[in-house]
Amino acid sequence: MTLRAQVRVRCQRCLKPMAIELAPQSAFEWVSTEAELDASDGDDQWDSVLAPDLFDLLPLLEDELLLAVPYAALHPSCNPAGASEAGEKFSPFTALAGLKVSK
Ligand SMILES: [Zn+2]
Fold first, then answer.
1. Separation of CA 54 and ligand 1 centre (Å)
2. What is the pTM of this model?
3. Domain coordinates of the chain in residue numbers?
4. How far is the CA of 36 from the centre of ligand 1 (A)?
5. In this predicted structure, what is the pLDDT of residue 77?
């Protein structure tokens, strides 16, 4: 499976939005019983997915895309947030604030 998506994230240096391309590739093996799932443990070629009947593919696609998002996306070249504002020093806590997710 190859997914392609463009997502907008926040640059962890300048805290401005940026678009990144995701193209995760994964291989899956569908198994229908727990025994088959156990037997396939340790196979690095692909991930085994227990799907005894109908299988909802969307959560799997979402997981693959979420795992592909870099932990700390950065522009190739930019200045730390607040660097241009006089009297305000860059703080790592400012970058952490950018990681906050409202629920
Ligand atoms: Zn940046």
1. 43
2. 0.62
3. 5-97
4. 46
5. 93
Query: What's 25's DSSP letter?
Result: B
Name the token pair of 57: 């593919």
| Cα–Cα distance list, 54 to 5, 12, 51, 61, 73 (Å) | 25, 40, 7, 16, 36
Percentage of the residues of the chain whose pLDDT score is greater than 90:
45
Neighbours of ion ligand 1 (CB under 5 A): 11, 13-14, 75, 78
> Which two structure tokens, joined as six digits, stand for 71?
């932990």
Ligand 1 centroid distance, CA of 76 (Å): 7
What amino acid occupies position 9?
V
The per-residue pLDDT for range 36-59, each reduced to its tens digit, is 888 887 767 788 888 888 888 899
How far apart are the C-alpha atoms of 53 and 51, rounded to whole Å?
A: 6
Q: Quick one: which of 65, 81, 64 has its CA closest to 16?
A: 81
